[in-house]
Design a protein that fits this description.
Elements (H helix, E strand, L loop, with lengths): L1 E7 L14 E7 L14 E6 L3 E3 L1 H4 E9 L8 E8 L6 E5 L5 E4 L4 E10 L12 E10 L18
Parallel strand pairs: 4-10
Antiparallel strand pairs: 1-2, 3-5, 5-8, 6-7, 6-9, 9-10
Length: about 160
């Protein structure tokens, strides 16, 4: 089947470097080659952050970030986000209207799930293989000692 490998540059804070030349994309097939499902000219979203264990500063200012193909959110498209878990009774939800990261601050210690979804100007989800992602198993420990070798923020990321 079809496989698409996406790589993009990131800063030390794990924020993706956005724009031309900051990414590489390769589509390849294992076994029988068929019609390509991934068209980089159509709107696609690649989930980047958050993920895994986040301690200290990384948990106090949780980075929400992604990489886009086929759109820059400049024609009314949006990326909706939802954060659930950690004992919250209602999800933390909102939207990106520009291609820039956001930071969720002061979430309590716990396990979280984050969903990012690319929608058109009318709020309708785009169709395609990379338009919605839910990442589970995001652990926050704001009081924990940050492991600077595994993504600790050298300086706070603000938006």
């Amino acid at each position: 089947g079809e496989h698409t490998l996406v790589a993009f540059a990131s800063r030390a804070t794990h924020e993706s470097v956005k724009g031309a030349g900051a990414q590489a994309l390769v589509t390849f097939w294992v076994g029988k080659k068929g019609k390509a499902a991934f068209d980089p000219k159509k709107p696609h979203l690649v989930y980047s952050r958050p993920k895994g264990e986040n301690k200290g500063a990384m948990a106090q200012e949780l980075l929400l970030d992604f990489y886009l193909f086929g759109t820059k959110l400049d024609k009314g498209e949006k990326v909706k986000y939802s954060i659930t878990g950690g004992g919250m009774t209602t999800p933390l939800a909102g939207e990106f209207t520009t291609w820039a990261p956001k930071v969720a601050k002061h979430l309590p210690k716990g396990d979280y799930e984050v969903t990012l979804e690319l929608v058109d100007k009318d709020g309708k989800p785009f169709e395609g293989p990379l338009t919605k992602t839910t990442r589970k198993g995001i652990k926050l420990d704001p009081e924990g000692a940050a492991d600077m070798g595994h993504g600790g923020h050298a300086a706070p990321v603000t938006k």
